[in-house]
Amino acid sequence: MSAVQRVAIAGAGMAGLAAAILLAEDGVDVDVYEIKPELTALGSGITLQGNALRSFARLGIWDEVQKQCWSQDVLTLRAPGPDATVIATIPDARTGGPDFPAAAGMFRPDLAQIMLDRATELGARVHFGRTIESLTQDADGVDIKLSDGTTDRVDLLIGADGINSAVRSMVGIDVKPEPTGMGIWRAFVPRPAEVTSTDLYYGGPMYIAGYCPTSEDMMYAYLVEDKQDRSGLTPEQSVEIMRDATRAYGGPWNQIRDSLGADSRVNYTWFTSHLIDGPWNRGRVVLIGDAAHSCPPTIAQGGAQATEDALVLCEILARESTVDDAVWEEFTRRRLERARTIVEASLQLGRWQLNHEQGDVPGLIGRIAELASVPA
Ligand SMILES: Cc1cc2nc3c(=O)[nH]c(=O)nc-3n(C[C@H](O)[C@H](O)[C@H](O)COP(=O)(O)OP(=O)(O)OC[C@H]3O[C@@H](n4cnc5c(N)ncnc54)[C@H](O)[C@@H]3O)c2cc1C
């Protein structure tokens, strides 16, 4: 018997859809409210670490993800400069265990579609273009008012509405994402044939230049710099700036540079970070994923952690018969320190670069891989 029968979720990202899948699978009545009018997820590619892939198996979507992603087991370090000299090819840790590759690159909208299909197939209702405007709660449930004027009463409200979570504000948690000092250019481009796994270039004018294949045909490429005010640029100006910034890098970057254009989804954003340092619930409202914690993608764990939040929460709810303190104590115990360690490590990697310090990068990455290898 589940602790909840009727649940509302704000946000149809990885965290919200993972929770919707697991709850619907348990026979819970689930409504997901997504602010965007449709699922044309912005963004380009995402690197999914092994522990995210292991979670996808639990969600019943790994087979489909596997068909559409680009699996990889190594990471290559290259030098800036015209030759893009290979410095090292390093086996990447299989944090999801031996049944999953170390990592997979994927086109974000493809992943979103797979998760949406699975959630709806199991009976979750996903409403686009609708949000939760206000809420009140008592010991037994949460009353929500929706943007279309309708109301509902649910046993639990999950705020999975991302880094600028409206649900977080509604329950009075005033933690806000803070800029870390870096900004990232990203683009979605054809995959040069020689690119078969993630390549990272440290040094040159950028902190990091890199790319990750997402399919036979495509990949995403990125450049990390000191954060700058890049607001107000036309798409053409963004393409031109990103193209210019690639000139210090050769090898596959020559083809990337030539292919950058209007359809490359060139995007610029600052790295930010936050963590709710304490329970992520207020009564029967709980925050998961980026609504609760976020970090720069220096170890690409954001998606994995968002999905793990949903897995742990839904596992506890399925086992318990009521939503009480024991649920929240266990959820906090299993999630807070793990998320904190990942956020701290992601920030540390960025800080070493910003301060031009030679930190123990392999040691830190190794410790995170060890942590991520243990199922949440
Ligand atoms: C530049 C960059 C690169 C990254 N690269 C990686 C990577 O390679 N690998 C990785 O694992 N992670 C990466 N991340 C982090 C990763 O994208 C997030 O951790 C992950 O998407 C979190 O999922 P989420 O569902 O919590 O939030 P989101 O994916 O942000 O989903 C939240 C959803 O809620 C919706 N929403 C927002 N407001 C409301 C509202 N008021 N009502 C209803 N719906 C609302 C949004 O439209 C969205 O669909 C990266 C992040 C950044 C910024």
Question: What tags apply to this protein structure?
Answer:
6-stranded mixed β-sheet; 376 residues; binds flavin-adenine dinucleotide; D-Amino Acid Oxidase, Chain A, domain 2; 10 helices; alpha+beta; globular; 2 domains; 8-stranded mixed β-sheet; FAD/NAD(P)-binding domain
Average pLDDT, all residues:
96
Number of helices: 10
Query: How many domains, as an integer?
Result: 2
Q: Order of helices and strands, N to C?
A: EHEEHHEEEEHEEEEEHEEEEHHEEEEHHH
**Structural class of the secondary structure composition?**
alpha+beta
Largest sheet: 8 strands, mixed
Domain FAD-binding: 6-345
Keywords: Monooxygenase, Oxidoreductase
InterPro entries: FAD-bd, FAD-dep_Monooxygenase_BioMet, FAD/NAD-bd_sf
GO molecular function: FAD binding; monooxygenase activity
Overview of this structure, please?
One of its GO terms (molecular function) is monooxygenase activity. The protein has two domains: 6-69 and 104-177 and 273-373, FAD/NAD(P)-binding domain (3-Layer(bba) Sandwich); 181-271, D-Amino Acid Oxidase, Chain A, domain 2. The protein has an eight-stranded mixed β-sheet, with helices on both faces. A six-stranded mixed β-sheet has the order 8-2-1-12-19-18. The protein has helices at residues 14-25, 50-59, 62-68, 108-121, 166-170, 235-245, 252-259, 302-319, 325-354, 361-373, and strands at 6-10, 29-34, 45-49, 70-72, 74-78, 86-91, 103-107, 125-128, 132-137, 142-146, 151-154, 156-159, 178-190, 198-203, 206-213, 218-226, 267-275, 281-282, 285-287, 293-294. The mean pLDDT is 96. It is α+β, with helices and mostly antiparallel strands. The chain binds flavin-adenine dinucleotide. Residues 10-16, 33-36, 46-48, 131, 160-162, 166, 184, 269, 289-290, 297, 300-304, 306 line the site of flavin-adenine dinucleotide (FAD).
